[in-house]
Amino acid sequence: MNLILDIIDISTPVILLNDIDARQIGVLEGDRVTITRIKSKHTIAAPVSITKTLTSQGTATVSLGTNNALDGEKGDEIEIRAASRPSSIAFIRKKMDGGKFTREETAAIISDMSSNVLSPSEITAYITAAYINGLDMDEVEFLTREMVASGEQITFSKKPVVDKHSIGGVPGNKITLLVVPIIASAGLLIPKTSSRAITGAGGTADLMEALAPVAFSASEIKTMTEKAGGVIVWGGSTNIAPADDMIVTYEYPLKIDARGQMLASIMAKKLAVGSDTCVIDIPIGPGTKIPDEAEGRILANELITLGNRLGIRVECAVTFGGSPIGRNIGVNLEVSEALSILEGKRGANSLVQKSVAIAGIALEMTGKSGSGTGSDAAYDQIKKGKALKKMLDIIEIQGGDPKVKSTDFPVGEHTFVVPAASDGYVVSIKNQALISIARTAGSPVDHGAGLHLHKKPGEYVKRGEPLLTIYAERGWRLTRAVEEARTTYPVLVEGMLLERISSNR
Ligand SMILES: O=P(O)(O)OC[C@H]1O[C@H](OP(=O)(O)O)[C@H](O)[C@@H]1O
Ligand SMILES: O=c1cc[nH]c(=O)[nH]1
After folding, report:
1. Of 265, 267, 282, 289, best ligand 2 pocket probe by most atoms within 8 Å of the beta carbon
2. Which GO terms describe its biological process (predicted)?
3. What does pTM read for this prediction?
4. How many Cα atoms occupy the beta-carbon half-sphere of 171 within 13 Å?
């Protein structure tokens, strides 16, 4: 049936059909249709949603997400036909039943995902099936290579091309904002691509976006890296492994990071930008993605094995993730904390030590520093102001303000101080509770939202002194975040009353 194209500004891939047209075409809610733009003969597929009022008879309204693939214009004539179910759905079902993906099956799933043929519920089913039943190393390699093939690749003539990545999972992990300028200021190339928050309250791409634009094409990333030595950009921005970012988007609301997809997500971003040397940070501890050192070592070996298969030299750093890195969580708070260290101000030891340790491994792997001297050399780049200068170069080349200072990042005007209920030492911190409070307060979407930890494990606090301050840009968000803090006890002081339990009668 031929209809007239309309376009609606929503990203989820969908085509809205009037219920009378849908009946004539022979499709129900959630079925798939093919859409052919008559002018160009270009055909794509999309899942259907049926409406009585939003789309009038004779018109088909496609989302921007669908139109990106169709490349149509409002008013175009299009032909709509009922489509058969893509074969990738059978492959997803195979994984649900505990089967193993072949390379061809992985390619079909990633291709259908990238071209918006799979619906959000089918993508979620794919992620969930792989989360529950796992992917072996062959399947992970297939996925990595298909993620890379779904987008553009960069190659540099100068070697080495260095990279760093964190598996995430620890709040306040802003180290990339220090590690990248340290490495680039030592004369190495580092085209760093990051995801937005996956399980956390602010991914590196979210943080960097407070300093400069992060969405660039592959050729822009290459040119900027060659000029400035490094960049910090969003991996999902354009066409660098776009399927990776789709998976991350569907993982975010579930607060999961499926193991096989995480391995592929990390290494696809490295392979796509032509990295040959990579340090991967594996934070471990309660409330992180990896509970203990033994599991950290297993993951490290998986990343190293995958790196070998892809021709990337990988070293992993198993790091302490039992409490936040630094004291700030949330976009502006974290950016400010990272910049102030680069500016030479005193700051949280956890942030400085972790950053120089990771940067130091890269310096040693590339021969820039001798064995055992990398972290001192990395620290020197901060102390001599070279890392700050490089960070400002990176900000400028990405279109940000090169005069920016750590004091330029406002926090939300709605604040609440959580006081200690008793005297004592802080014995532990619940990472997940802190992340959840920061997300409830509005992070990462509201850049001023988040929290500042006044006390960390081992520190003494007196009753009534602040344990943490919550910041929000909207009053209602602060109210909800405070309610959460009152029930989850994110900072535990020894001897404190956690809960009163009484009989229901
Ligand atoms: O939200 P969670 O799961 O904590 O972590 C996700 C973050 O971890 C990685 O950080 P980086 O790019 O190595 O700095 C990803 O790119 C992303 O920014
Ligand atoms: O980039 C990343 C980091 C952690 N987990 C992912 O899935 N991707």
Report:
1. 265
2. AMP catabolic process; pyrimidine deoxyribonucleoside metabolic process; pyrimidine nucleobase metabolic process
3. 0.88
4. 30
